[in-house]
């Protein structure tokens, strides 16, 4: 019997697992993310989490965990060095919410144009040319913006150097949080970079630690953030000082979350498939499950007008609500509770390239 411990807030996970995998030899235990601890998961072989769970030595030491999968597009909550040192296999849902985050950034840009912070002649810099960066740059190019892209890991003649990015009127960050490697992103945007961006716009929908938040407070910059250091207790002063501040919901679309679940189940299937010489399982193609709910990559027949993104994703109202919370004299526990509640209560919304979105808006 293989035991799985899972965060019960991973959407439709139970249905997807039971539809795609023969569960006769599987026992699944679901927990609130706050109850995913060393004791509760000690007898499990597989752990399925969201970004709210820190997966590290203190969580996994002396457990039977051999495989960890996260239903998120980021991995900074996973201690990769520890996992690999213990030969614990791991995976995550790369790109699952790329359309959702793209929608967020386009909604922000539409808001900035409406408030005359930028215009259609503004130069836009994109840091990171992965799933989100590619989707965002393609869309902005179709809208005739002047786009500049930086990614040191990609050899592409359309990309530019970092200093060129800092000359743009607006910069949007789309990189993972890393402290190692040739190009670590921890504090990628420091005091010097912020000085170059003075009186310009910086959008951070990646991770809080990529930007020096203390330096933001000393700089004349239009800062827009969906991610924060020390979540769910972000810096109160930075939240209220930011032009737009949202509670880590850029990737929280219906399709983005469901895509994460589908990818996690596929990862579990692949893990178990490699064990079938000792544990025979019958697998179905998980990609065929609930297909009508998953992003239809071909549904978008033409480029949508920019204002549709703001009308369907009112980031300014979300920001106003968050700032109202943070203007109160709250304790750290109250801040954390409010932040998590705002994330949890974020209404279901459809990605701009999903069938549901297009059928309801056009």
Task: List the topology elements.
Layout: E1 2-7, H1 13-20, E2 26-31, E3 46-49, H2 57-60, E4 67-70, H3 80-85, E5 89-92, H4 98-114, E6 123-127, H5 131-142, E7 146-150, H6 162-166, E8 170-173, H7 191-196, E9 201-204, H8 213-216, E10 222-225, H9 236-241, E11 244-245, H10 254-273, H11 307-312, H12 315-326, H13 332-344, H14 355-361
Parallel strand pairs: 1-2, 1-3, 3-4, 4-5, 6-7, 6-8, 8-9, 9-10, 10-11
Helix pairs in contact: 1-10, 4-5
Question: Within the largest sheet, what's the order of strands?
Answer: 7-6-8-9-10-11
| SSE topology string | EHEEHEHEHEHEHEHEHEHEHHHHH
Name the structural class: alpha/beta
Radius of gyration: 21 Å
Low-confidence regions = 277-301
Strand content: 5-15%
Q: Predict the CATH topology of the largest domain.
A: Rossmann fold
What gross morphology would you assign? globular
Distance between the termini: 50 Å
Largest sheet: 6 strands, parallel
CATH superfamily of the largest domain: NAD(P)-binding Rossmann-like Domain
Walk me through what this model shows.
This protein has 362 residues and is an alpha/beta fold. It has helices spanning 13-20, 57-60, 80-85, 98-114, 131-142, 162-166, 191-196, 213-216, 236-241, 254-273, 307-312, 315-326, 332-344, 355-361, and strands spanning 2-7, 26-31, 46-49, 67-70, 89-92, 123-127, 146-150, 170-173, 201-204, 222-225, 244-245. The strands form two sheets. A six-stranded parallel β-sheet has the order 7-6-8-9-10-11. It has a five-stranded parallel β-sheet with strand order 2-1-3-4-5.
Provide a short characterization of the protein structure.
The protein folds into two domains: 2-96 and 254-293, Rossmann fold (3-Layer(aba) Sandwich); 98-250 and 307-361, Rossmann fold (3-Layer(aba) Sandwich), CATH 3.40.50.
């Amino acid at each position: 019997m293989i035991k799985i411990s899972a965060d019960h807030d991973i959407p439709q996970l139970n249905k997807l697992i039971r539809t795609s995998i023969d569960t006769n030899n599987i026992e699944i235990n679901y927990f609130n993310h706050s109850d995913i601890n060393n004791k509760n998961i000690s007898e499990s072989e597989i752990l399925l989490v969201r970004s709210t769970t820190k997966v590290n030595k203190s969580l996994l030491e002396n457990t039977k965990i051999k495989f960890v999968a996260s239903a998120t597009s980021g991995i900074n909550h996973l201690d990769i060095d520890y996992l690999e040192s213990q030969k614990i296999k791991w995976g995550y849902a790369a790109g699952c919410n790329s359309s959702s985050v793209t929608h967020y950034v386009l909604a922000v840009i539409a808001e900035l144009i409406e408030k005359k912070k930028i215009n259609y002649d503004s130069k836009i810099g994109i840091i990171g040319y992965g799933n989100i960066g590619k989707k965002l740059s393609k869309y902005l190019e179709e809208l005739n913006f002047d786009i500049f892209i930086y990614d040191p890991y990609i050899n592409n003649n359309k990309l530019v150097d970092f200093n060129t990015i800092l000359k743009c009127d607006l910069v949007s960050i789309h990189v993972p949080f890393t402290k190692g490697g040739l190009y670590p992103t921890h504090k990628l945007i420091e005091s010097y970079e912020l000085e170059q961006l003075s009186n310009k716009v910086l959008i951070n929908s990646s991770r809080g630690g990529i930007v020096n938040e203390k330096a933001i407070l000393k700089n004349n910059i239009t800062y827009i953030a969906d991610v924060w250091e020390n979540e769910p207790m972000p810096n109160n002063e930075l939240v209220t000082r930011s032009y737009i501040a949202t509670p880590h919901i850029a990737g929280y679309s219906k399709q983005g979350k469901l895509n994460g679940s589908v990818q996690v189940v596929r990862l579990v299937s692949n893990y178990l498939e490699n064990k079938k010489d000792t544990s025979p399982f019958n697998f179905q193609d998980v990609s065929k499950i609930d297909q009508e709910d998953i992003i239809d990559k071909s549904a978008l027949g033409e480029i949508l007008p920019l204002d549709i993104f703001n009308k369907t994703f009112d980031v300014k109202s979300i920001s106003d609500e968050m700032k109202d919370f943070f203007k109160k004299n709250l304790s750290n526990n109250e801040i954390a509770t409010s932040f998590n509640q705002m994330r949890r209560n974020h209404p279901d919304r459809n990605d701009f390239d999903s069938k549901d979105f297009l059928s309801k808006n056009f």
